[in-house]
Amino acid sequence: MDVRIRYGWVDSVRLALSVCCLAALQPALAFQQSDDEIFVVIKAGKIVTMAGDDIRDGVIVIVNGKVRAVGKGLDYPGNAKIIDARSLVVMPGMINPHTRIGLPRYTRSGVHGDLTVAAEYLPNESLNKDLLDSGYTVLGLYAAGRGVPGRGLVVRTGGDAAGRTLLDPAHLWIPFDKKATRAALKKAQAEIDKVEKARKEFDEKQEKAKKSAGKKTPATKPATKKAGKPTSQPTTQPTTQPVFEPPKIAAAYQALVDLIQKKEGLFVLLDSRRASDVIHLFDVLDEFDIAHKFKLRNFVQTDYDRVVDALGEREAQVILLPYLNYIMYSAERIHLIKALSDAGCEVSLVPLFDSTREFGVMRQRLTDLVRDGWTREAALKSVTLHPARLLGIDERFGSIEEGKEADLIFLDGDPLDPFARVRQVMIAGEMVHTVEGDVK
Amino acid sequence: MSEKQATRQRGNEATRLPAAALRASVARRAGLSFVLLVGLCSADAEGQGRGKRQRPRSRPTSTQSTQAASEPTSTTQAAEKEKDRYFAVINGVVHTVTGPVLDGATVLCKNGKILEIGREVRLPPETEVVDAAGMHVYPGLVAVSASGIHGSEPPEDTTNVFGISMNIALAGGITTAGVGNSVAKLTFGSVEDMVVRRKVFVRLSYSTRSPIARAKLRGDLDRVRQYLRDLDRHEMEKVKDKDAKPPEKEWIKGPYAGYLKLLKRESVAYMTVGNVHQILDACELAETFGFRLVLRGAHEAWLAPGALGRAGASAIITPRTWIDADPRYSRQTGSSIETARILHDHGVTVAVIPQTAAILTWGVAGRDLTHLNMEAAFAVRGGMSNDDALATITINAARILGIDDRVGSLEVGKDADMVIADGDMLHFMTQVHYTIVNARIAYDKSQDSFFAHIRPDGKPEVPDFDDIWPRRLEWPDEGDSEP
Questions:
Q1: Are B296 and B270 spatial neighbours (Cβ–Cβ below 8 Å)?
Q2: Region of residue A314 (phi > 0: left; psi between -120 and 50: alpha; otherwise: beta)
Q3: Burial category of B219 from C-beta neighbours within 10 Å (exposed 0-12, middle 13-18, buried 19 and up)
Q4: Which of A278, A283, A311, A346 to mutate to test the interface with B (most CBs of B within 10 A)?
């Protein structure tokens, strides 16, 4: 990215004449430093932006915790705080979209669309330190159990207490149970139908009332007689227009109702254990058109290779484990992650288990997957941009771009270099974690 | 080249085959299909279909890639969806089971049903064709009961559609299986059109070991019969007296509802019986109350075939059952391999099921559903004709399950469920090459990871020495070789 922003202390007008379109989009005022703008500038050896090519010897200009500009040789105010990371590699903080690390072993069964995992979550600073140490800055926590156990929570692992919670309540995770899932969705549909029916009845009643008022004939029977209300209702036209009060939707099903009604930002993460489950989930999704993403448990031997094309055709967003799998009942290896990625899926990867060690070796696992034929770009996106898109927080996270949060990690080598480790972590423009010396 | 060298050459061929099979399985996973496509099937069309990446209209099957190949543009997609799906098996020896054997006939199917069977059948364009030259085409085998192939009821919600059991059962030629009290097809990779029928049987227990339960069943049946008589009487009374009260019917629920269906002959009773006393008791009960009866087990049925015939009962038997004669009785006891033949001669509909009605991947081979056809072959050993034995695992099994209007034979209008095998279905050397369910290839031996390497040329000859397991990776060097 060859973005050169001319910046002067006095003449900010020249800025508008910048050749690059990205710079042209910059409001001229942006660089007029006001009192409440705090500039932080990172001079990085390499910037892995996840949006275009890597930038060598680049600069990241951060204003109030948000990235203002990324590029080479950018100008910045003289009083900006300079972070010299010329020997380091900067990349966006890693995101785990599906984990329960640090949460109690608590499960519930039944439909609980009204509950969120926030009630179970208690920030554990020592754990967060370990997570920051492995480069993870955002976690997507889920409610465990059977049926519809509850809504998730998306949190940062460090930084200001006020900015920690990103989404609450977040998406719904549903473990695989075709019958239970379909029953829950049917119940939610019944709730919708209930409201629609009540509205229809209300409208009919209004129509009738209007007609009788128009005729000006005293009604022999009050229109509101059914429903067992006292018949002393005035037969004349009411002075105020009655307001429709919809019947209450069962709170536990509200989230599913929102799903069916395609509420913005809400989706369901459908868990599955094998290819057959995916076929069954397609069957449910044919019936209920809801926003959905998939979690595939591709343990050692897997038959997910049978649904690669079907998932690819849907351009599904999938969460996988960083395994190089075997084909079911066979010693033949298959790079399922690559296959899904090539077929058109957007792959996010999560550590094998919810342990800090697995979080720590995640980059090494990515290295393995790249060694076996996956692309470096896809591997790095699978822990940054793709999980951000999956969770619906890609407006703020997942890459180093203008307007996104400055949640960055500083490594002393390439992210896929097995010897590289995280040296510093920045959250919202503030350094929250630093590793000194040779070992942790 | 000397004979020994030639043999060695063949030996090396044999060792290389599994690797080729493995490659073939990789090819299958890449979405390729070996099926011929008459009409348009070019690499370009295939590329177009794959590149489009639209939400699949139909659920994925093993033949989807060839289906997608015939979609030229997205504007015609709606029309494509409505388009009829043709499928044909050509050049095979077609065993219709309920009709003649037709050599070199074509079975043409439309949208999963058989449209035409005959010699001079014109194939519409874009028909998916399987060439069965030199092979035999049978209706899909029907396993009267099975566990493990499908999930629990309802099967369309619980089945592992890529499961190993379904795969092996298809390799054994089974296309339809009883699951719990339903009947479901082995629609590999899909849940579409899986269930054929639900609530097939009413299971009765009429054991001499619990006389109270026995008396209760009789009493309950009697009560329901009385209700039906009262209902008939009420029908007549209604003509004279419009206010005549119908008999009470609130109590008819739970087991009584089942009994009512039995006595109205809307359903069939299913009883597991063993010795001749139990068989005679069951037949007597069925004759007394006039319901249809299916007996499972019935190893002593050869002693009272007439009773079964008179009661109109059907039997699900295992010809290989071996139960010794009991020396404490002065009468004849024990099992007989002739049971199937004797029952058939007395007009009883006989279906055959192996000892273990499931797919086993352990234990002694040949006693489970992997070899349903072998169980029928044992009925032949007991004196049954080949054709009748074939009927025990096809049309008779379908009749017992009440689905003979859809499966069990190759007839126009029936479901396109077929087995294409390289020999007589009842021969132990015969291998199934294709299994077709609802006019979709559910099993293709050449692409299968378990069976592709076994006699891939399909010649049912006795294997020569080189093909004996364990295969040698390399022929040992014997020193001197021919100049």
A1: yes
A2: alpha
A3: exposed
A4: A283
SS3 of residue B259 by DSSP: helix
Are B65 and A276 inside 8 Å of each other by CB? no
Handedness of CA B365, B371, B376, B377 (dihedral sign): negative
Is A54 an 8 Å CB contact of chain B?
no
Give the largest CA-CA distance in chain B. Answer: 109
- Select the residue of B53, B160, B450 nearest A276 (Cβ to Cβ): B160
A163 contact B CB<8A = no
Angle at A223 between CA A220 and CA A225, to 5 degrees: 95
Taking the alpha carbons at both ends of chain B, their separation in whole angstroms is 9
- Asked if A171 contacts A267 with a C-beta cutoff of 8 angstroms, the reply is yes
The one-letter amino acid code at B250 reads E
Alpha-carbon gap, residue A329 to A335, rounded angstroms? 16
Residues in chain B: 483
Residue with tokens 């829950």: A184
* Phi and psi at residue B266, to the nearest 5°: -90, -15
- Please name every residue paired with B317 in a beta bridge, in sequence order, or none if there are none: B352
Strand A408-411 to A317-320 pairing: unpaired
Please name the member of B29, B161, B450 whose beta carbon is closest to the beta carbon of A279.
Answer: B161
Strand order in the sheet with A292-296: A172-174, A268-272, A292-296, A317-320, A346-349
Q: Which amino acid is at A147?
A: G
CA proximity to A165, closest of A119, A201, A204, A197: A119
Q: B39 CB near a chain A CB, below 8 Å?
A: no
Neighbours of A166 (CB within 10 A): 19
- Residues on chain A touching B171 (C-beta within 8 angstroms): none
Residues of chain B with C-beta less than 8 angstroms from the C-beta of A279: 59-60, 161-162, 189-191
Phi then psi dihedrals of residue A83, to 5 deg:
-110, 115
CA distance A126 to A141: 18
Residues in chain A: 440
Q: What is the pLDDT along chain B (483 residues), one digit of tens a residue?
A: 444 444 334 333 333 333 334 334 434 444 433 344 433 333 333 333 333 333 333 433 333 333 333 444 444 455 556 789 999 999 999 999 999 999 999 999 999 999 999 999 999 999 999 999 999 999 999 999 999 999 998 999 999 999 999 999 999 999 999 999 999 999 999 999 999 999 999 999 998 889 999 999 999 999 999 999 999 999 999 999 888 899 999 999 999 999 999 999 999 999 999 999 999 999 999 999 999 999 999 999 999 999 999 999 999 999 999 999 999 999 999 999 999 999 999 999 999 999 999 999 888 888 999 999 999 999 999 999 999 999 999 999 999 999 999 999 999 999 999 999 999 999 988 999 999 999 999 999 999 988 988 888 766 555 555 555 555 555 556 665 554
Which residue do the tokens 């009927």 mark? Answer: B391
A249, A327, A334, B131 from B444: Cα distances, Å: 51, 18, 21, 12
Q: Which of A262, A277, A257 minimizes the C-alpha distance to A318?
A: A277
Please report residues of A whose CB lies closer than 8 A to that of B19. none
